[in-house]
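Worked example
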Amino acid sequence: MIKRFIHQFASPKTYLFQVNKVYRYIFYISLIIYSFSLTWGLLFTPEDFVQGNSYRIIYLHVPASFISQSLYAIMAIASITYLIWRVKLAAYFIIAIAPIGAMTTFIALISGSIWGIPTWGTWWQWDARITSTLILFIMYLGLISLHNSFSNYEKADKLLSWLVIVGFVNIPIIKKSVDWWSTLHQSASITLTDKPSIDPSMLYPLIGCIIGFFGLIICLVILSSKYQIFKRERKKSWVKEYV
């Protein structure tokens, strides 16, 4: 029953039909939210007592860091779905998300380095959080290169799925690295279990930036997944309806 449900609602044709209906709404709403929140955070929030104005990079760094890890978690779920139920759309999602995950991880690393110069006095430190995030970036690049090296898509999809699942061990390491080891990187300001340690005047635009940025990344994932579908399903007659 579960298998039937997944295959019914996860076919490439059905997926394209659904995302084409909602794409523009997601894009414009997310763009408005992120633009408003970013402007709010950069121009209208108070200066931090310790870090001064340099903290404002959190409105780019935190969303990018959060989403880079979230995208890998989505890839892991897609990998499990593909290996268990052989849903080919899940395999398309893995390779569609990988370059976007690499991009967001790169943004997180660069913005973190810029933040580190005035905060730590150095742009790079082999800190547990930074190093594990760098490993995530390398993993994304490795997955992309590996998939592109195969001419047989089915073999590439299977191998990629297993590697994504194995590599998922790095996500909790990134998340808990500031708690497990002595690290320069500050602990999370927003958690599900504790009250946020950041002032509400800075917190609200940050939450807006996370939501808006996440929506824009979803739009990129939709475009990337559509490209993978057109590439892999190009011989199917129904593809002509969407091209």
The helical segments are 2-9, 12-44, 58-85, 88-120, 128-148, 153-167, 170-180, 200-232. Residues 22-184+198-241 form a domain with the Four Helix Bundle (Hemerythrin (Met), subunit A) fold (CATH 1.20.120).
